[in-house]
TrEMBL record, chain A:
Name by which UniProt lists this protein: Carbon-monoxide dehydrogenase medium subunit
Organism the protein comes from: Trujillonella endophytica
One Gene Ontology MF term: oxidoreductase activity
Alphabetical list of PANTHER family matching this protein: XANTHINE DEHYDROGENASE SUBUNIT C-RELATED
InterPro entries named in the record: CO_DH_flav_C (IPR005107), CO_DH_flav_C_dom_sf (IPR036683), Diverse_Substr_Oxidored (IPR051312), FAD-bd_PCMH (IPR016166), FAD-bd_PCMH-like_sf (IPR036318), FAD-bd_PCMH_sub1 (IPR016167), FAD-bd_PCMH_sub2 (IPR016169), Mopterin_DH_FAD-bd (IPR002346)
Automatic annotation (TrEMBL), chain B:
Protein name according to UniProt: Carbon-monoxide dehydrogenase large subunit
UniProt keyword Oxidoreductase, yes or no: yes
Record's keyword terms, sorted: Molybdenum, Oxidoreductase
Domain Aldehyde oxidase/xanthine dehydrogenase a/b hammerhead: 30-144
Alphabetized InterPro entries for the sequence: Ald_Oxase/Xan_DH_a/b, Ald_Oxase/Xan_DH_a/b_sf, Ald_Oxase/xanthine_DH-like, AldOxase/xan_DH_MoCoBD1, AldOxase/xan_DH_MoCoBD2, AldOxase/xan_DH_Mopterin-bd_sf
PANTHER family with a match to the protein in the record: ALDEHYDE OXIDASE 1-RELATED, XANTHINE DEHYDROGENASE
Amino acid sequence: MKPAPFTYEAPTTLGEAVDVLGRYGDEAKVLAGGQSLVPVLALRLARFEALVDLNRVDELAYVREDDGAVVVGAMTRQATVEADPLVRRAVPVLAEATRLIGHFQIRNRGTLGGSIAHGDPAAEYPAVVTALDATVTVAGPSGTRQLAAADLYDGPMTTTLADDEILAAVSFPVWGPRSGFAVREMARREGDFATAGTVVGVTVADGRITRAAISLFGMGPVPLRARDAESHLVGAATAGLDLTAVGAAAVAGVDPPSDVHASGRYRTRVASRLVARALESALQEATA
Amino acid sequence: MTATQAAPGSGVGRFLGQSVKRREDARLVTGHGRYLEDVLWPDAWHVAFLRSPVARGRISTLDVKAARALPGVRAVLTGADLDPLVKSWWQTAMGKDSPQPPRRLLAADDVRYAGEPIAMVLAESRYLAEDALELIDLDIETQPAIVSDHRGRWGAAKDGELVHPEYGSNVASTLPYPGMPDSNPALEEVLASAPHVVEETFHQHRYICVPMETRGIQARWDPARDLLEIVSSTQNVHEVRSTVSRLLGLSDVQVHARAEDVGGAFGLKCFVDSEELAVAAAAYSQQCAVAWIEDRNENLVAGGHSRTEDLTVSLATDADGKILGIKGHHVEDVGAFPTYGVGGNAGLAMMMLPGPYDVGQYFYSAEAVFSNTCGMTPYRGPFLMETVAREQLIDITAARLGIDPVEFRRRNMIRPDQLPFTTPTGLVLETITPIETLDQATEMIGYADFRKEQAAARAEGRILGIGIASYIEGSPAFGAAGAEQVTVRMDMAGQALVFMGSGSHGQSVETTMAQVVAEELGIDIDDVRIVQGDTISSPYGTGTAGSRTATTFGGAARIAGQKLKEKILQVAAVALEASPDDLEITDGVVSVKGTPGAAIGMEQIAAMAYAGHTMLPADMEPGLEAKHRIRNPPLMFSNACHAAIVEIDRDTGAVEIKRYVVSEDCGNMINPMVVEGQITGGVVQGIGGVFYEHFVYDGDGNPLTTTFLDYLLPTAADVPDIEIGHVITPSNTPGGFKPMGEGGAICSPPALINAVRDALAPFGGLPNVQPLTPEVVLDVIDGVPAV
Ligand SMILES: Cc1cc2nc3c(=O)[nH]c(=O)nc-3n(C[C@H](O)[C@H](O)[C@H](O)COP(=O)(O)OP(=O)(O)OC[C@H]3O[C@@H](n4cnc5c(N)ncnc54)[C@H](O)[C@@H]3O)c2cc1C
């Protein structure tokens, strides 16, 4: 479990990092917190001629408010996100989801951008990004571009980012008043990637749901949006809502994977119940 | 929480019986432990093994030329290079003639499990060694693997295809042994006529030792000194020395083995396996220093596996639930190359299946089978299937008969008035207290009140359950293992060095044995140092394993200490012109009883014993050194009862352990804190086994759980507070100690499984499946047949 040889590059600005990355093309990989990349290298499941370390690129570590959104720099540590007062107030579900990532030691190193760029289908952040319709800022040789969350993931641990692009920041829209959110997951142990999980957001006005978002993680090759269930929710009265039916609708047609931890059948059953639980909690928050 | 119920004379002294803080901890918890990797020789060549990617097949190409040519690589060795060096290969405890699978250091013609070493690279660093591995050209013609499916159906172990053609059969061993009766007609009669006979098959999946420090060894052959020097992460340095000397045809005085701090073992490091021997052979043949530190991936795939068995038990009772007879049939998968002999655990399981009960008629049969998987290695309580199966069957039987499971146990347990009790397999139980520990555990957990709470919770739709399990822990000390030696040497300054053949790998031996010796000598514990794990300085011994250290080394330390104390008093008597009988030792000072003014310090006594020998009587040997080699019974016993309360999440099947209680009787405790630490660690391994840990192979023998991402160990977050109560009934051996190191791991699996079974009773039966993943549990709740 020792990585193959690689060259180590340590730029200090985003521009420099893009340049260095451009020189190597697909022969280089960006190193953020290393919590996913380093084990992959050590097991020699992947190898790269060079690692471009972003840990000295200070301009990529920040949390700020920008035009009705909270923008988080890619190199912001997960632990920082979890504790950030702005995140907790304006995008509380992001903070709540962070607590479910690994253990605190991992969150001290792991970054928001690393998790989102890594794109593990059982990870929390990609599901939050997907549920909240976040926007990703990507820096490349020809400048920066914006990418909608829906267009970010291609397959398990694959994004639509080009080899010479760096995920620079993620912008989370701030939902209006009378909104509620929840994240629920089933993991074999405290701190494990989810066997199945869900992120739910709702806005309620006059006893009716006006906005709803449900994403599922651990349930497919990429984080999924339960659009059918969402469309049934929008306009529905909160009183007497059949949570179980929403849960069932959310997993209808989903074909989750089977592995040594659980079968797809188990994931489906559990995800539908987690959606019901999360929705109940989100509605409570929205109507409190 | 701790409750203690002590018999008179339970041996509490200044140090003995006290929760003295572990002397190991200051260095271990501050990162100053010294493990093998901390002492690698700068000139050592680092090893990486090329391992088989498949479970079974013929090697058609093995070309190491390019790897040999990589700069920084000293050698790439194959079976053709190393295996001719092997002179003989056997384990001391098993003897030269016990059956074994064919052994080899490196696979040459065929491979027999995924992970089997095929070639070994010696390079300047492990990094380079792994680079070289990638340059080796290997082709294997895959053959169908002989594997049991991971849910314990053994259908594949047919003799058409053989794991070891040389062995002639996939059946590695059977019980009864040849010459023993192959049935018990009286039991058959009982089974045919008893009012109730319940039979179930219990499965135990593959889960494994996974010590924090993996295996590792460095070896150096020095022709000038005619010495093969070894540092190994081992429980038993003498076994390392002797296995290596036999392997290479050296003599025991040509090999020196020692250990540094050992970061856990759990049985994995009792014996010496092919990779470790390959390192020694490479050092010898290459005449250089060679080092191998197993990485976690290797440790999981090839570090020795455990459990993996089925036990079918039939239990006959009368109408009132009195047990009339019990019959067991055990099937074990020992993998391809079990680390010792043919690896089966049935021999001990057979002795222990009756447990703490008076079972009437008895019979046990067993079959161990080879498979194309990693070989079996001992793991804390290797024989525990007897308790795992029996305690589940007792709950199932009690439920069928409508008898409370605690009451059922009480009715059948061996009573104090039956002691000494001879079991059907001839074990003599002298000082066990199963009913007392059952009573203490059920009282601590509030068994009676829990049943009310459970009924109320069920009415609210919550799923709660309680599980009880009892056992006796048998510690084998066969052969040399029952005759350990301790030497206590006091030099001229009056402090004691204690030399023992133990091999602490987490048992607090440096603390507990110092307590014993300090107590006997009347000196401060800080004036005692334990020396172990070195074939040159330690007396010959079998290391630390099988829960024997307190009973064998502890007993020997006690007597050696007493002998030295007598000598100290004799020398002091000369100085004080008194009779030794009138002297006492307090805090390192010898004085005449009742005349505190007439006193002499330990340092003066020691000086006199050596330098002042001319003052000693002519018939007194100078010096202050005493040894004792103990003679212990081949089996000793402790007993305990575990009780667990669980709550299950109705939506996910996740199990939460709400309470966990242990009541145990290990006789006199040298250090109650250490006893509780041992119990707690064992229980955590049981929690891991029942709910998390599972080494999985697919149907072709490919390992699927090769990192900690998939092989799940319990973390601190998954472990409840473990509450421990003590009953103290001394054994009849020196010190009154009993074996207790494995019990936590033995009794926790059935206690936890029983708790889940009890919780799920309203939903129907628990299938014979392990581990109890959330999915298994949820399938029962949802009434969905298991996949
Ligand atoms: C024991 C353990 C448990 C864990 N549990 C969880 C869990 O429960 N949930 C969870 O979500 N995660 C979990 N993780 C993963 C953790 O969250 C990682 O930190 C995260 O997946 C990757 O972030 P990183 O900053 O460490 O990225 P790295 O490991 O450095 O990089 C990961 C990948 O992303 C790429 N990358 C990183 N940053 C960028 C960027 N700015 N632009 C483009 N590409 C980039 C890298 O090139 C690499 O391919 C766990 C990790 C461990 C070790």
